[in-house]
């Protein structure tokens, strides 16, 4: 088949923004300054076109006003007598090329006929004034990722390059048995490791025993299917297994039902019971609508809508291909929330990342083992991936945070979440169209198994098992998928229409484990399913049946369609240009049966698939490497010497606390037109909001409020305190913005280093004990606050072994909190409103600087603080305080409210000044605690609020019993001035006296331009 | 929420109550309820909810129709009095923003679109919709005599921002009071979120550009803090010359712009709403972005 090549560039005289941006990146990242740089788009049309047709396609693609193009090549002009080097970057065979898809569509539109074959996109960089080898090295560091992209570098004059990355092979599909029954332990372990199965010896033995009982060996597909289903990623074995736990006092207990049932699920059940006891919810209107069993948690919101929320991590893929891995993270979690019940309407995304320090020069790899990308490049790629995934899907983001620590250089943490609104009912099947509850999936025997959306390729094979082991040199390239948000958007536009016409009975996402997991899970509804993989559409030929079964190729949902609706479903899909393929049907024979045409591929009992995994008792022993001895006197003495003003400015310039609006504004936060309290606010729009609020439906005033808590450094001292602090901060944030006390829900995301004791992990017992204490803290906090955990996720192998170096993340819990308000017009933010208003601190401060930002800053500066305690969180006192606060807030007494969080009170005050452009004139009472401790301790449970002078007495009456301290007042002059009172033990004096301009200068310093 | 008395607070209003208040504020009557608005959707467009809500809150009848259904039944176009080109990422903005989508419309619906405009139909486009309208030749429309049978050739394009990449921030635009644009009539300035990576206007020639400015077919321009038209970032997010943020055709009935007034339907959409509301007596009934759409509905009732 003939291939045509098109080249398109910006019309001479117009700006080439990609060239400008590339030039800037080469300069700032690599100190490389080409004499000139120009870019082109290039498309290879492998579509069987005539030359005349290719010319017409070119004319349809080139902008007649802004671009020029050529069939074949554009001329490569010399500059100052020098021919340019031409770098071409395209995708490797089989990697999703969404632009190529659109080009094929455009060609078909313009020629008005359907086309076979593919179109492939690439980018050309024409560079003058840099030699070939230097450019080659720079390209590798900055312009392409060899895991997914191919490149060529030639100097003009060149010949037309018509090579295309055709994928696939002519290999005939086959099924191979795996000789497991007679294998010894060493062989079983080898099969698991070499096959990237991530199955333990005990699991391999259980599978061998099962098949010995059946009198045959498993097929390759059966073994793969079990490996996916039993992976840590899908089965959460560490959370399910019994644990023998030795606590800090040396007492041993057996957590027989595992962590999930004993703490996570137990917390939610206890909260649900307490609501029932207290009659919190009217009959038949339980707050908890659907938890634990679906893709995402569902809670009650209005008479018309429920709210759905899920937060995922996508750490391992993002380490290998930050752009593709992170994009898959966001579009993947979109599918989770979308695919809950019969389908929900996506409302808002959240993101949060933990990276290594991005500030070092790109070529300074000190401390970075070979094979790891520089944190700056990982950060850059992750941002771009989630930006493109979210923006192109038309979903605004609400929350975004970034944290930095060298221990995240091995595996970055990439959190992506999605809130959705689920109509309380949707129409049932025609002709009756009787309303039915949306949270249920009424799948029946005989309903067809239909795969909808993208096609299957080798991308994303072994994603589930890969993320269940540490990262090392042999990590599979295939585990990386690239999302195609437009294919996905078209898919869910279609599915939303089909939902509202009652055309299907259930659906789930094809994520980890692909069809093996999605069909395997849905089969539990009817107790069986049978599919034929020969009917699954492939991106290219040559996939083995097991590969088709477990591929995690993106943009696919598995849908259950009743036979009576099948024709209408398929007709609508065709009209919307969404591929839908009937693969089989749901059965009730207790088996998951897979064929490929006449070949038998897989025949597993569902019982063994879902309950056959052995769960050995795990060992946990609290045994920190060194005990932390608190020395309050020494700490206060050191703090007394601290220049608080300088310390505040230094904290603002640390990456954890600095402005990231540079990046964050590349994420759409306003599409859908529902935003109320935006993620960034203030006169300059650069201050991160305490919590965000948005309407849920047009024309209505009820809103959803989002916040979160994440404190990885607290886990260095005590994970129980970390969990309490995370729940507290997330809840406190949404309450500041206006959330109802009685409608708060939370999500837990655990990211842990491997907590299983082994030669590679000699401290596994302690890491598991850290997990136990974290779960206990989470349980206690949720109960005290009456906050159910409606969804969660764990990622338990966040370690990298490369070049003999092991990097493990600190144990990290993210608690994402979702609140509700009846009226978004009553929401508050952190910004003081007017000069003359009073400023109060609600909640007591203690000498709790352990694991604080100030403690890290002092350590980095070489003058560490003597150890103090870490925030402990008095849950009962906090909850009582929040009740009083919400009362005062709803009575209209409060004008602004902000949490004290990372960086302490000082950071909160800086935010208030930065946001409002007003000043603060404050006085601290230092009778009990030094000014520095009061300003920088990260004690939980505290809110800084402002109120009108006239409301001061009422505020004091309402909150006086809850640790209310009057700090001072808002002033017109934009300065932050904090002094200690005349009556203070340490004498009076100014401890902070700084200007808005100084604060803004340092606030913008750390991450700007990276 | 479940209780009207929840914590003794005054509640926000329902959709119907909001619509009534808004129609009153704009002095729209039953005639507005007869205005039919067509909102084509699909293929990666994503601003259908807010674009539809804008016209619904003004009392008009809104029909969202998937482009594939519209291409299958082009006659549906003639039943509408307002056609809305919504924002989003049609076909991912692959190749160039709006290019693939505009081609599909041109090849499949070009004649009907030309007829719709020639018959006095109103059209408005935001962001990706505006990009599509320029690539279809709907904007700025014919520079001389218009043909009722064919779309005008493309004379303007919208290309990558001088500062590469997508950015979401509010901008202020000044309205040209001399412009024939019916959508901006009586409005002095507009604030809206700007959310695009390709928003810079490029003209086929200086002559085209001079003619459009001379005919006041650049109804909205980005302005700086002093209210002066600017090509400087960030007040001008893309480097568009002379602050050009949008275009209209010679009749003024076809209008498009890069920013998103449809994302400012409620007062609480504004990033400074809390600061603005401070000290104010009453809660405003609507966000100021709605003014443009009210003008469109009013123009439709006067046809």
Automatic annotation (TrEMBL), chain A:
<feature type="active site">
    <location>
        <position position="233"/>
    </location>
</feature>
<dbReference type="GO" id="GO:0004642">
    <property type="term" value="F:phosphoribosylformylglycinamidine synthase activity"/>
</dbReference>
<comment type="pathway">
    <text>Purine metabolism; IMP biosynthesis via de novo pathway; 5-amino-1-(5-phospho-D-ribosyl)imidazole from N(2)-formyl-N(1)-(5-phospho-D-ribosyl)glycinamide: step 1/2.</text>
</comment>
<feature type="binding site">
    <location>
        <position position="312"/>
    </location>
    <ligand>
        <name>Mg(2+) 1</name>
    </ligand>
</feature>
<comment type="subunit">
    <text>Monomer. Part of the FGAM synthase complex composed of 1 PurL, 1 PurQ and 2 PurS subunits.</text>
</comment>
<keyword id="KW-0547">Nucleotide-binding</keyword>
<feature type="binding site">
    <location>
        <position position="748"/>
    </location>
    <ligand>
        <name>ATP</name>
    </ligand>
</feature>
<keyword id="KW-0479">Metal-binding</keyword>
<keyword id="KW-0460">Magnesium</keyword>
<feature type="binding site">
    <location>
        <position position="509"/>
    </location>
    <ligand>
        <name>Mg(2+) 2</name>
    </ligand>
</feature>
<keyword id="KW-0963">Cytoplasm</keyword>
<comment type="function">
    <text>Part of the phosphoribosylformylglycinamidine synthase complex involved in the purines biosynthetic pathway. Catalyzes the ATP-dependent conversion of formylglycinamide ribonucleotide (FGAR) and glutamine to yield formylglycinamidine ribonucleotide (FGAM) and glutamate. The FGAM synthase complex is composed of three subunits. PurQ produces an ammonia molecule by converting glutamine to glutamate. PurL transfers the ammonia molecule to FGAR to form FGAM in an ATP-dependent manner.</text>
</comment>
<feature type="binding site">
    <location>
        <position position="310"/>
    </location>
    <ligand>
        <name>ATP</name>
    </ligand>
</feature>
<dbReference type="GO" id="GO:0000287">
    <property type="term" value="F:magnesium ion binding"/>
</dbReference>
<feature type="domain" description="PurM-like C-terminal">
    <location>
        <begin position="835"/>
        <end position="978"/>
    </location>
</feature>
<dbReference type="Pfam" id="PF18072">
    <property type="entry name" value="FGAR-AT_linker"/>
</dbReference>
<dbReference type="InterPro" id="IPR041609">
    <property type="entry name" value="PurL_linker"/>
</dbReference>
<feature type="domain" description="PurM-like C-terminal">
    <location>
        <begin position="445"/>
        <end position="596"/>
    </location>
</feature>
<comment type="similarity">
    <text>Belongs to the FGAMS family.</text>
</comment>
<dbReference type="GO" id="GO:0005524">
    <property type="term" value="F:ATP binding"/>
</dbReference>
<dbReference type="InterPro" id="IPR036676">
    <property type="entry name" value="PurM-like_C_sf"/>
</dbReference>
<keyword id="KW-0067">ATP-binding</keyword>
TrEMBL record, chain B:
<dbReference type="GO" id="GO:0006164">
    <property type="term" value="P:purine nucleotide biosynthetic process"/>
</dbReference>
<dbReference type="Pfam" id="PF13507">
    <property type="entry name" value="GATase_5"/>
</dbReference>
<dbReference type="InterPro" id="IPR029062">
    <property type="entry name" value="Class_I_gatase-like"/>
</dbReference>
<protein>
    <submittedName>
        <fullName>Phosphoribosylformylglycinamidine synthase</fullName>
    </submittedName>
</protein>
<dbReference type="GO" id="GO:0004642">
    <property type="term" value="F:phosphoribosylformylglycinamidine synthase activity"/>
</dbReference>
<dbReference type="GO" id="GO:0005737">
    <property type="term" value="C:cytoplasm"/>
</dbReference>
